[in-house]
Amino acid sequence: MTYRVKLRFRAPLHVGFMDTAYELSDTLIHSDTIFSALICSLALLYGKDCTDELLRALVEGKTRLLISSAFPSVGNVHFFPRPKGEDFGLSKNSLSSSSQFKKLKAVRFVDEDVLFKRAQVSLEDVRGQFLTKDREALKEEPFLIIERPRVSVNRYDSSSNLFYFAEVHFNENAGLWFYLSVDADIEKEILSALKLLSEEGFGGDRTYGFGTFDFELEQTTVPNSGNRYLLISVCVPNTAEIEAVPEKVLNYDLVHRTGYVHMSDRRVKKVLAFAEGSVFKKPIEGAILDVSPEGFEQQYGHRVFRYARAFMLPYEGGD
To answer: How many other C-beta atoms are found inside a 10 Å radius of the C-beta of residue 93?
Structure first.
């Protein structure tokens, strides 16, 4: 079953993407972060043995769980990452000034009608990071990033240090959404974990209630025709397909994925992955990677995995 999961946040969100850079927060949630959060919630609900068994089935391909990254939505308008290199015909209008070129270059997200129905657009349809024909939906910014001052106190000498912490505040009708495609044999467990996750929250400062959300599940079908494939998750090709990747990729960005293991001070192995918005001529599968730190299993009794499966959607690309 494939669902569109719509998130409406009850509190601010902080999703870090650079160590110790608390003044920065991402405005999307990567697919590997969603997977990790679901697995941690699953372990709280069902325990270690059930979680290990499910992870083993996923890694060995005995069951299927596909997750996209979470992108902005406003009302009923759902945005996707802008395909790398795609201009939707706007550059043919001979951008006459550097300001117009910069306006087009700033677009990060494109709505469904523009991407999959090839709705005709103009520069007037560009609203900051967004390209959409629905100008009513973006009369105001869907979210606001606030840098709030905080003070840390050294426990040894009581010296203080001022720093800034970024908080993403969503408007009442705005939030994030992602695709969740899951086999029937694990659907109950995954949806239960999602329910718990809505109370636990995404990102940093969850002890203060940050990242908690309400969610809505909508059964859906994904686009199934087009001459190109848009990656809407982070992805690392599996061993069997690495050599063929240069023949399949058209335009791409890369992103480093790292961080600390939940409930520990150990850092996972760093991964270089294809980023959302990368464009391929043919689909790839991706992998679930073992990123356990050296000696981690002996110390904590389990291994650590990073979700890097490809969630790809066909679409009709331009020239």
So the answer is: 12
C-alpha 151/C-alpha 154 separation (Å) is 10
Tell me the whole-structure pTM to 2 decimals: 0.90
In angstroms, the CA 54 to CA 188 distance is 12
State the pairing for strand pair 109-111/130-131: parallel
Instruction: Give the 3-state secondary structure of residue 279.
Output: strand
Instruction: Describe the crossing of helices 31-59 and 184-200 by its angle, rounded to 10 degrees.
Output: 150
Of the candidates 142, 198, 209, 146, the one whose C-alpha atom is nearest the C-alpha of residue 171 is 142
Q: What spatial distance separates the first Cα and last Cα of the chain, rounded to whole Å?
A: 34
Domain with CATH 3.30.70 in the chain: 2-75+137-222
Residues 6+ apart with CB under 8 A from 227: 314, 316, 317
Contact criterion met (CB below 8 Å) for 269 and 19: no
Q: How far apart are CA 10 and CA 199, in angstroms?
A: 10
Domain at 2-75+137-222: CATH architecture? 2-Layer Sandwich (3.30)
For residue 232, the model assigns a pLDDT of 97
Q: What is the per-residue pLDDT across 154-200, written as a single tens digit (0 to 9) for each?
A: 777 777 778 777 888 998 889 999 999 999 999 999 999 999 999 99
Instruction: Compare 236 and 210 and report the one with higher pLDDT.
Output: 236
Cα–Cα distance for residue pair 63/183, rounded to 1 Å: 6
